[in-house]
C-alpha cells in the first residue's frame, strides 16, 4: 500500500507540487499520493500533530509556515539550520525532521545554466528575506565568495552578509546602487516579491546596463516570465526562470522521501505546460 505525502501552506490551491510529485510517484510505480492541505497559521500546531498521527510520511512546507513550523518539529537537518527555515519534513517513525531544499535546489538549477563553476561568477542577489538567505548561504557553500546583496532595506542586506563567515568581498547595496553598477555582475538573482501579484508589471531595477553575457534569475515561477525576465530577454541576456528552482527543490524533497531521483525534465515539462 502507498503512503501519503503532502504540502501545507496557505494558499496552496494553485500549487504545482501535487501535479509534479504525483506524476513522479506514477513514473516510479509507487502507490504513494501527494495532497495539498490548506493550513491557516492559527491551525499550524494542530495540523502538524495530525499529519504525524496519520502517519503522513513527508510533507512540504510553504508560505507562511516555513519558519513558524520549527518549534513543532523534533529535529532540524543541517540544511534547515543553515537557512533558518524548513520546506521539507520527513516523518521518521514518528519523529519529524525538517530539511530545506530551496537553496540547494536553486544552486542545482543554476548549475544547468553555467559552463564554468558557479564560484567563478560575480553575483548580485536582489532581496534579503528568507529566500535570499537560503540562496546566499547555499551559494557560499558552493565556494562562491563574490556575492553582493541589494535590498530596499539595506540594514537587512548588511545583517545577512555579517551572518556568513565567507563573504569578505560582499557589499550591501541599495537597489539604486546595484542598478548603477549592474554591469559588474555575471549572475543577477531576483528574490523579492516584486513581479509577483499585485506587483506583476514591476521590476526591482533596470537591466539596461547589464553585461551582455549576464544570466538573470527570478525565483518567482508564477508568472514564469516576470517583468524583469521579459526585460532580460529583450536585451538578449540569458534568462533563468523560477521553474528551475521550483523543480529542483521538489526533486531534492522527493529524493529525501523515497531515496529515488525523479525526472527533472518531466517535472519541468509539467510546470511549463500548466503555467507557460
Ligand atoms: P521571502 O521568504 O519570500 O524572501 P520575506 O522574507 O518576506 O519573503 O522577504 C521579502 C523580500 O522582498 C525582502 O527583501 C523585501 O525587502 P525589505 O527587506 O526592504 O522589506 C523585498 N520586497 C518585498 N516587497 C518589496 C517591494 N515592493 N519593493 C522592493 N522590495 C520588496
UniProtKB/TrEMBL annotation:
Residues 116-194 form the Quinate/shikimate 5-dehydrogenase/glutamyl-tRNA reductase domain. Pathway: Metabolic intermediate biosynthesis; chorismate biosynthesis; chorismate from D-erythrose 4-phosphate and phosphoenolpyruvate: step 4/7. NADP(+) binds at residues 78, 127-131, 151-156, 219, 242. It comes from the Bacteria. Pfam families: SDH_C, Shikimate_DH, Shikimate_dh_N. It is an enzyme of class 1 (oxidoreductase). Residues 242-271 form the SDH C-terminal domain. GO terms for molecular function: shikimate 3-dehydrogenase (NADP+) activity. It catalyses: shikimate + NADP(+) = 3-dehydroshikimate + NADPH + H(+). Its EC number is 1.1.1.25. Shikimate binds at residues 15-17, 62, 87, 102, 221, 249. CDD domains: NAD_bind_Shikimate_DH. Residues 7-89 form the Shikimate dehydrogenase substrate binding N-terminal domain. Keywords: Amino-acid biosynthesis, Aromatic amino acid biosynthesis, NADP, Oxidoreductase. The active site is at residue 66. NCBIfam families: aroE, PRK00258.3-3. Involved in the biosynthesis of the chorismate, which leads to the biosynthesis of aromatic amino acids. Catalyzes the reversible NADPH linked reduction of 3-dehydroshikimate (DHSA) to yield shikimate (SA). PANTHER family: BIFUNCTIONAL 3-DEHYDROQUINATE DEHYDRATASE_SHIKIMATE DEHYDROGENASE, CHLOROPLASTIC (PTHR21089:SF1), SHIKIMATE DEHYDROGENASE (PTHR21089). Belongs to the shikimate dehydrogenase family. Homodimer. This is Shikimate dehydrogenase (NADP(+)). It comes from Metabacillus halosaccharovorans. The gene is aroE.
